[in-house]
Amino acid sequence: MSLGSAPSFSEIGIAGVEPVREPRSVDLTVEELMERYVDGSAEAFDELYRRVAPTLMGYLLRLTRQRERAEDLLQVTFAKVHRARESYLRGAPVLPWMLAIARRSFLDERRAASSRNEDLSHDGVLPEPRQEQPALSNDVSEALERALDALPEAYREAIQLTKVAGLSIAQAAAVLGSSETAVKLRVHRGYSQLRKELERFMRKA
Amino acid sequence: MSLAPEDDDLQDLPWPKPCAPRPEVSQAIREQCTKGLCAKRGASTSQRLLAALSISVLTTALLYWLSTTSAHPDGAAASGLYGVVGWGIVLTVILTLGLGRPPGKRGSVIWRVLVATLLPVAFFGYLAFAASGRVDFGTFSQGGHASHAVRCGFISLAIGALVAGGVMLCFRRTDPLTPGLSGAIVGLAGGLTSAVAVGIACPSSEAWHLWAAHGLVLVALVLLGWGVGRRVLSP
């Protein structure tokens, strides 16, 4: 009798009792995926990456305004996550944890760049290769992108975390190391400026 | 906490969607993070907290034992024991509330800032209450008084730094969210341990001495903890 084709115990089950199945990675929360990654599961890492990388990339892209730099920082962020995975404390919310690491990586890089006397713009961002400004279009999403880029960094970050990354005010406050009231105020003021910019766009359009 | 109702009119805007990195970048990250991947489970929050409390309690107990075996009268040792118990409770509460939960669930930033600033102030009050005499500042700042205060201050700083360093190692790389603030809480714990423990062994109960050699050390350790914590506690 070939054991290779024999059904496993979990497939047979006991009469009237559902066989115990391991939950698939796609059914798990990001916190559970992080737990499994810490326990050495590459499959859990893949699913975790699939879920959080776009949010982290969007956040870094908004901070740096350069795709290459954002991708470099994404690599740095995941390298830090990988190194620090043993010190991930069970129950800590994963997305704010990773966003805070990404933010710290960005600030460290910016500090290092300024100490090398690289030519920084007024808001401390590295110079971006000048691109041809596209003709004014009626695309609201493009206008929103421009309006977001024109916001002061503190407002932009608060809006990016709450509106685009989908964090709660409390989680965004934790990532930014500030109080919930301060974040709420930044988001509100950022919205006011965005509203003005969009109204200007609508009049021009 | 929700946003103001007037901000609701922006809900329907086409907000930028999260964007994926290029496939080659994702591939490089995957290789970097899964190469030779194995289980790497660190200690849990409660285990780290227990280790941190043990460091503080053992240091205090050791210094208390040293002070009672020296030539101090029994009354001083007994009143010192009350101090140890009282501040030990404070220390346990600080460490439990400050570091007893994973980052992101540690309570509000404002509350923890208040703890890190108000407790040193309260400690100065406790020292003023505990002081039994006071010389004028001119007398204190010269001769034997000053050299004793400097010696005591250095010993307090060294013991506090050792305790805070031990606690910080227990929580190394665990807090990317508020590493500075958690570091300040660790500094506070180290400072309280050393101030109380050295305070029992120290024969002086003069007010200037207590404030300068024991109280200021606590403030210094909170500030030191804030600076070092930003590096050590952050991943």
3D architecture notes:
The complex is a heterodimer of chains A (205) and B (235). Chain A is mostly helical and 205 residues long. Chain A has nine helices and no strands. Chain A has helices at residues 9-12, 30-38, 42-64, 67-83, 94-115, 140-150, 153-164, 169-176, 180-204. In chain A, α4 crosses α5 (94-115) and α5 packs parallel to α8. Chain A is globular. Chain B is mostly helical. Chain B has helices at 23-34, 45-69, 74-99, 109-130, 137-140, 143-170, 179-201, 207-232. In chain B, α2 (45-69) packs parallel to α7 and α6 (143-170) packs across α7 (179-201). The two termini of chain B are 28 Å apart. The mean pLDDT of chain B is 81. At the A-B interface, α3, α4, α5, α6 and α7 of A face α1 of B.
What descriptive keywords fit this protein?
heterodimer, A: mainly alpha, 9 helices, disordered N terminus, B: 235 residues, 8 helices, 71% helix, elongated
Summarize the structure.
Chain A is an all-alpha fold and 205 residues long. Chain A is built from nine helices and no strands.
In terms of topology, how is this protein built?
The complex is a heterodimer of chains A (205) and B (235).
Chain A: H1 9-12, H2 30-38, H3 42-64, H4 67-83, H5 94-115, H6 140-150, H7 153-164, H8 169-176, H9 180-204
Helix pairs in contact in A: 2-3, 3-4, 3-5, 3-7, 4-5, 5-8, 6-9, 7-8, 7-9, 8-9
Chain B: H1 23-34, H2 45-69, H3 74-99, H4 109-130, H5 137-140, H6 143-170, H7 179-201, H8 207-232
Helix pairs in contact in B: 2-3, 2-6, 2-7, 3-7, 4-7, 4-8, 6-7, 6-8, 7-8
